[in-house]
Write a structure and sequence with these properties.
The complex is a heterodimer.
Chain A: E1 2-4, H1 7-22, E2 31-35, E3 41-44, H2 47-53, H3 59-75, H4 79-99, H5 114-143, E4 150-151, H6 164-176, H7 184-198, H8 205-214, E5 220-224, E6 232-235, E7 237-239, E8 253-258, E9 272-275, H9 278-301, E10 304-309, H10 315-323, E11 327-329, H11 334-344, E12 364-374, E13 377-384, E14 393-399, H12 402-422, E15 426-431, E16 442-447, E17 457-459, E18 462-464, H13 475-488, E19 496-499, E20 508-511, E21 519-524, E22 577-581, E23 587-592, E24 596-599, H14 603-618, H15 622-635, H16 637-642, H17 652-664, E25 676-678, H18 679-698, E26 701-703, H19 713-720
Helix pairs in contact in A: 1-4, 3-18, 4-15, 4-18, 5-15, 5-18, 6-7, 8-12, 9-10, 14-15
Chain B: E1 11-14, H1 20-34, E2 44-46, E3 55-57, H2 60-66, H3 72-88, H4 92-109, H5 113-132, E4 139-141, H6 148-159, H7 168-184, E5 198-205, E6 213-216, E7 218-222, H8 224-229, E8 239-244, E9 259-262, H9 268-285, E10 290-293, H10 299-307, E11 311-313, H11 321-328, E12 345-347, E13 349-355, E14 358-364, E15 370-377, H12 380-402, E16 405-408, H13 412-427, H14 430-436, H15 440-459, E17 467-471, E18 477-480, E19 510-512, H16 528-532, E20 539-541, H17 542-560, E21 562-567
Parallel strand pairs in B: 5-15, 8-10, 10-11
Antiparallel strand pairs in B: 1-21, 2-3, 4-16, 6-15, 7-14, 8-12, 13-14, 16-20, 17-18, 17-19
Classes of the chains: A alpha+beta, B alpha+beta.
């Protein structure tokens, strides 16, 4: 059976999905109840989970769900926005093709059937989309949008440290879309506290986030039957099992970890034990008992008060441990073990081979070790002394039903994923076609939030840049730069004259040379000294090239804007931007730096919408104009839903018009929202949606088959075997 | 071989609450639970139609565990209630009915969920703040110097479960026993952290309720055959006890993953038995009087021990091991080899007791916090219910020790709260309107929905067609008999309010519950004479009820917030 793939079908599917997810979007979103075949109920506002729970059959829908889940694996956020955006894009495409039937059709394929004609047209559009995604989007992000970005890091120190209020805003906005509306404040506060409590050293929070993200399952305890407001954070690690034997202990408590039974067995796997007489059997048993006792005695002599075991220990071991005042916890999962090892850096203790000597170095101190009772269930509560930057804490999540607790767990876990993404740099690269040869062929833009900009010094007619690097730059690029420089090195060393004019727009270095490279240096300085980012200026990677390059510098003071968020009078530092120029002049490598955020409530969408429309006006190529327009309009779908329930001054048209006015007059954007969201996340979402759309558009026929398509990689693996 | 099948697509339904079906089902569940509520509640008989046990109950835990619920929304509701009951034992029906009432009342209003949830949350915090405050007039601090309040609490719990089939005299007896059992679990020299002991409920069905008893220590049931073998117990001050958690049956323990080759003629059984006898000899030389084993003791070893005047009892089971180690004061022995002398425990006395037709081996500890509650009732069904109720009461007592307050029962807390909320929102609405961004009308509507949910909850205590009144001074609950002779001036009739704190007075102005009425300021701060006069009050567990209130409102908000239901039909 085969079915034609078409935009109309895809649109229909996307619209159905949109009606489901749009109900859960944003702070006004509602809950969805999922029942499992086992009879359990699960509450969710997580788009990815909902789409999975639907078990969709339609092929196009399955493509969409697959795209969403691959996007979620990358970023952990944005499933609902994905569907809404995709739906609006499809709607836009559908309308356009309805109007202009033969817009893209070439003369020579008009003889083919109508379907094939359409498919060809879709392919054309999808190519345009791909071009947009790889070239225009990055350009616009870098050139226009970046000036609006805010940074989540606090401005006062040189290192990247978390700013509590901005983290609260970021998390608040995230949980608004993830958990029930009467709990999101509580949960986001809980998470914020958790992050700060777990972070021993402020500058190494990324390490903490990584550990928490990896081991979140072990760091939470769910308690059903209590009101959600009883959720709390407790110091130390909670193991979800009871002591096999508990001996209260004070003072120095050392722990040891074992991964095998302490009591020796008659025979290990793969060996034989030959019993020749009854006496032999009895002596072996006696030896086993004695040896077990000896090992436990030795543990006691090492001051070990707690034994963590990954396996079930025989009764004898438990009995001996109890006699020697050692508490035992059995059957630790491998995840719990790895978490403990990560935190305290303790290796499992190996059972000695020879019975005479016991070298035991693998013990660690713990602060306390006691039973913890939550809702009449007993847990082991360990106060681990951390050897890394992560101070272990556990989240106790309470709720009337298991489904709600699971939702909160998922949301918290997702939030850690999201935070990790926020603190990563995201690379942008794009190509620009420079039409004017005399004009700047390679603009190198430095936006530096330091007023006292270290201006280039000129020594011996050469320009040496004394920028220090704070941004990690890829080695590959560096190498490339340098090789390129060597090519140019045979050029005449120019005489450079510097007119330094600090009060004016910047020093202008007039250069006369045969080599027509002009480099523009734009330094934007903040207009307020108090809110400056104190980052060191950057080193130019190609610092060796100064003798060979002829440069004209223009240092212009850009306009630094600080967006003041409504209600909470917190100032966020403007993010700094670095743009890396590669010497092959038309490629640009830039990045969205870590910690870039924008206020929530469709700010990103409206900004991008505005700049895309502007771009579309300037753009000559018709298909690019069209694609930009469609995307720009589709972007508004999300804010439209977000403002649906608002009335009067806060209704969508009002907000939209106000935003456009401020953008046109170049005023800083003022948002009435208190939350923040990650720019990188939004950007990745946009690219994922465009890729998904390209996927859908390029398929012209859906063929249903009996078997699974054979995987190609299978053959390789067989050969290897 | 596993069979892979394509998953069927799920069914997605929008606005799960608006449909006729959902409403009818919710109403049915509410009706069912309401009819069980309180001392006059009706019983429900649960059976599966294909044989098996029949349970007559009005206990929420038993009822909801047996009730098949298919609608997803109701599943959430029942799951929440069951979790609450698992946590607090008490207040299950209260939570369930309040939640149903709230959902139904708010559903009727048709306001946006956001407003509803925000205001419900606000009203809830108003209630919890008031109940936790010192001025609260429906909360009584517990005086541990006397048993009055605790006894009233236990009696109220017993009275509210009609399926126990107890008469007044039996209720008195059982509540005294429960309180006694609870007091026996409290350690004598209390330190900073009190670790409560355990009271074990021992079943004795088919006996009169009056025969129930509380005994310190542990009762181990022994069969008559075993009893014959047990020697007459000699008189002594204390007995040395060895408690084993390993099997003493002579079986080979885990021999590892490899193979064990046994030469011809070598008998491992004999070897193991030799080991057991060695152990027996050690026990004899250590002058042990009693050997208890969780698992099985080899008959030969038993015989050996008997010849040496040692009593051996085996097959005790894992559930008794923890109290046993508490009673004897040692850890169970896990070794067949040499036993360290420190691992023997002692008990003060041993005796054989006969209750009904059952024989028990009774261990009396020196000073342990373990006791046995021998519970009798006429038949299985009534016994099951009585056991559940006793557990509830014991749990309620434990919770009361943690938070030393009790709430007035008999509907008085609910009606008093209603009066308080009405008064508060009518007279000081400004702060709410500012914080919660809603209109005056919305606030009034939601408050009315919330209050009427509480009122109809209180009203459902009355099952016999009587009228329910509230007074205009304390805001308490007064119930009037149905079918009054018209000649009687009916407002004079109620003699005592639901909780029994106040008697009918001249100056009280009566009004029907659930009738429109001018909000008044209920008298706060419980007067001292009221506390003192408390003889036979109806009381509720503070912790359980407060948490039940919170869970009910939170669950109702959750249900009202649902925009669609995705049902996995696989």
């Amino acid at each position: 059976m085969a079915a034609a793939g078409s935009v109309a079908v895809a649109l229909h599917v996307a619209e159905v999905l949109e009606t489901i997810v749009s109900g859960c979007l944003g702070p006004e979103g509602r809950q969805v109840l999922c029942t499992k075949p086992t009879g359990e109920v699960l509450l969710s506002r997580d788009g990815g989970r909902l789409l999975k729970a639907l078990h969709l059959e339609h092929p196009v829908a399955r493509v969409m769900v697959a795209c969403v889940s691959s996007h979620l694996r990358k970023t952990g956020d944005g499933a609902k926005t994905f569907i809404i955006f995709l739906c609006h894009l499809l709607r836009g495409l559908h309308e356009i093709t309805d109007k202009e039937k033969d817009y893209f059709i070439f003369e020579n394929i008009q003889t083919c059937g109508r379907h094939w004609k359409n498919c060809c047209q879709w392919k054309f559009i999808s190519q345009a989309l791909l071009t947009f995604q790889t070239q225009i989007l990055d350009y616009i992000m870098d050139h226009y949008l970046s000036r609006h970005f805010l940074s989540i890091f606090s401005s006062c120190s040189k290192e990247r440290t978390l700013c509590r209020s901005s983290l609260e805003m970021l998390l608040g906005a995230y949980f608004c879309g993830r958990v029930g509306r009467n709990h999101h404040n509580l949960i986001s506060q809980l998470m914020c506290d958790y992050v700060f409590k777990c972070t021993a050293c402020e500058s190494r929070f990324e390490e903490v986030l990584e550990i928490v993200d990896d081991c979140f399952v072990e760091l939470k305890v769910g308690v059903t039957g209590l009101p959600v407001s009883d959720s709390r954070i407790i110091a130390g690690l909670v193991l979800q099992r009871d002591f096999s034997v508990y001996c209260p202990a004070d003072g120095d408590i050392r722990i040891a970890i074992v991964t095998e039974t302490i009591q020796p067995l008659f025979s290990v796997s793969g060996s034989e034990f030959i019993l020749n007489s009854e006496v032999q059997f009895q002596t072996s048993q006696l030896w086993i008992t004695e040896r077990t006792k000896a090992i436990v005695k030795h543990l006691q002599s090492q001051n070990v008060k707690l034994l963590l075991s990954t396996v079930k220990q025989p009764d004898l071991v438990i009995y001996c441990a109890g006699l020697n005042g050692i508490s035992v916890v059995e059957c630790l999962s491998s995840e719990e073990l790895s978490l403990i090892q990560r935190v305290i850096g303790l290796a499992p203790f190996a059972l000695p081979e020879a019975s005479s000597q016991y070298e035991l170095s693998h013990t660690a101190l713990v602060e306390f070790c006691k039973p913890l009772i939550l809702r009449s269930k007993r847990y082991v509560h360990l106060g681990l002394m951390s050897a890394c930057s992560f101070t272990p804490h556990c989240v106790v999540l309470c709720g009337p039903v298991q489904g709600l607790i699971e939702q909160h767990e998922d949301a918290l876990h997702g939030a850690f994923k999201m935070l990790r993404q926020v603190f990563k740099d995201l690379d942008l690269n794009y190509v620009t076609q420079t039409s004017d040869q005399n004009c700047t062929s390679g603009p190198c833009i430095y936006e530096n939030s330091r007023e006292n900009n270290e201006l280039p010094k000129i020594v011996n007619s050469s320009i040496q840049r004394s920028y220090q690097d704070t941004v990690v730059k890829s080695k590959g690029e560096l190498a490339k730069t340098q090789t390129n420089l060597k090519v140019c090195s045979n050029l005449i060393v120019p005489g450079v004259k510097l007119e330094k004019n600090v009060l004016c727009s910047g020093p202008k270095v007039a250069v006369t040379d045969s080599y027509q490279t002009e480099e523009t240096l734009r330094c934007s300085s903040p207009n307020k000294g108090t809110i400056m980012d104190d980052h060191e200026p950057y080193i130019e990677s190609n610092s060796g090239n100064s003798t060979t390059e002829n440069t004209r510098r223009e240092i212009s003071y850009g306009n630094l804007q600080v967006t003041k968020l409504a209600r909470k009078d917190s100032m966020l530092p403007l993010r700094y931007k670095s743009l890396k120029m590669c010497t092959s002049q038309r490629y640009y490598f830039s990045s969205i730096p870590a910690g870039c955020v924008l206020p929530v409530g469709g700010n990103f969408e409206i900004l991008l919408h505005y700049y895309l429309l502007n771009y579309a006006k300037k753009c000559q190529q018709s298909e690019q104009t069209m694609v930009s327009r469609i995307i720009a309009n589709a972007l508004l779908g999300v804010p439209k839903i977000l403002y649906k329930s608002k009335k009067g001054n806060y209704s969508f048209p009002q907000v939209y018009v106000r935003a456009l006015q401020t953008l046109q007059t170049n005023q800083p954007m003022i948002s009435n929202q208190t939350g923040l969201e990650s720019v990188a996340g939004k950007y990745q979402l946009l690219t994922s949606v465009l890729q998904c759309l390209t996927n859908i558009l390029t398929v012209d026929l859906v063929i249903s088959i009996e078997r699974q398509p054979r995987e190609i990689c299978d053959q390789d693996s067989e050969e290897e075997l | 071989m596993s069979r892979l099948e394509a998953k069927k697509p799920s069914i997605c339904r929008r606005e799960p609450l608006t449909g006729e079906r959902a409403g009818a089902r919710l109403a049915a569940l509410r009706g069912l639970l309401t009819s069980c509520y309180g001392p006059a509640g009706r019983l429900k008989q649960l059976h599966n139609g294909r044989g098996g046990p029949v349970a007559a109950t009005s206990h929420s835990a038993a009822l909801l565990a047996g009730l098949p619920v298919s609608h997803p929304v109701l599943k959430v509701l029942t799951a929440a209630v069951r979790n609450h009951v698992a946590c607090f034992s008490d207040g299950g029906l209260f939570t369930a009915i309040l939640c149903c009432n709230l959902v139904e009342n708010v559903q009727r209003l048709g306001l946006t969920p956001t407003t509803v949830i925000r205001l419900n949350k606000h009203l809830l915090s108003l209630c919890t703040r008031y109940l936790k405050s010192e001025v609260c007039a429906c909360r009584i601090p517990v005086d541990f110097g006397s048993t009055q309040i605790l006894l009233s609490l236990v009696r109220s719990i017993l009275t509210s479960k009609p399926a126990c089939m107890l008469i007044a005299k039996e209720i008195d007896h059982i509540s005294t026993l429960i309180l006694k059992a609870f007091l026996l679990t409290i350690p004598e020299n209390a330190q900073e952290h009190i670790i409560l002991g355990k009271s074990i409920i021992v079943p004795l069905k088919g006996q009169r309720v009056i025969d129930s008893a509380v005994l310190p220590g542990i009762l181990i049931e022994v069969s008559e055959v075993q009893l014959m073998k047990i020697l007459p117990i000699k008189k002594s001050d204390s007995f040395k006890v060895a408690v084993f958690c390993v099997s003493l049956s002579g079986d080979l323990s885990d021999t590892g993953e490899g193979t064990l080759l046994v030469s011809y003629g070598v008998s491992l059984e004999n070897a193991a038995l030799d080991q057991l006898f060695n152990l027996g000899k050690q026990l004899v030389s250590d002058h042990v009087d009693l050997v208890l084993c969780q698992k099985v003791i080899h008959p030969s070893l038993k015989q050996f021990l008997r010849t040496h005047q040692i009593i051996a009892v085996d097959r005790i089971g894992v559930s008794l091991m923890e109290p046993l180690s508490k009673v004897t004061g040692t850890q169970p022995i896990g070794s067949l080899g040499s036993i360290s002398p420190s691992s023997y425990g002692t008990v003060k006395d041993l005796c054989i007791a006969k209750f009904g037709c059952k024989h028990f081996f009774h261990l009396i500890p020196n000073k342990a916090t373990v006791c046995s509650l021998l519970l009798c009732n006429r038949n299985d069904t009534a016994w099951d219910e009585l056991k559940l109720t006793c557990q509830t009461a014991l749990h309620a007592l434990q919770l009361t020790v943690k938070e030393p307050y009790v709430l007035l029962g008999g509907g008085c807390t609910e009606t008093h709260l209603v009066a308080y909320i009405r008064h508060k929102t009518r007279n000081e609405p400004e702060s709410v309107l500012r914080d919660e961004r809603c209109s005056q009308t919305e606030l009034q509507l939601i408050t009315e929905a919330f209050c009427s949910a509480l009122e109809s909850l209180a009203g459902s205590l009355e099952h016999d067609g009587g009228e329910v009144l509230t007074d205009g001074k304390y805001g308490h609950f007064w119930s009037v008999q149905a079918n009054l002779p018209s000649a009687v001036n009916w407002p004079d009739l109620p003699s005592r309010c639901g909780c029994g704190l106040y008697s009918s007075q001249e100056e009280l102005s009566w009004s029907f519950l659930r009738s429109a009425r001018h909000p008044f300021r209920p008298q706060t701060c419980l007067s001292h004479e009221a506390k003192g006069s408390a003889n036979t009050l109806t009381l509720d567990c503070f912790t359980a009820k407060l948490s039940g209130l919170q869970v009910a409102v939170e669950t109702a908000s959750l249900i009202l917030d649902l925009s669609c239901v995705i049902e996995d039909t696989n």
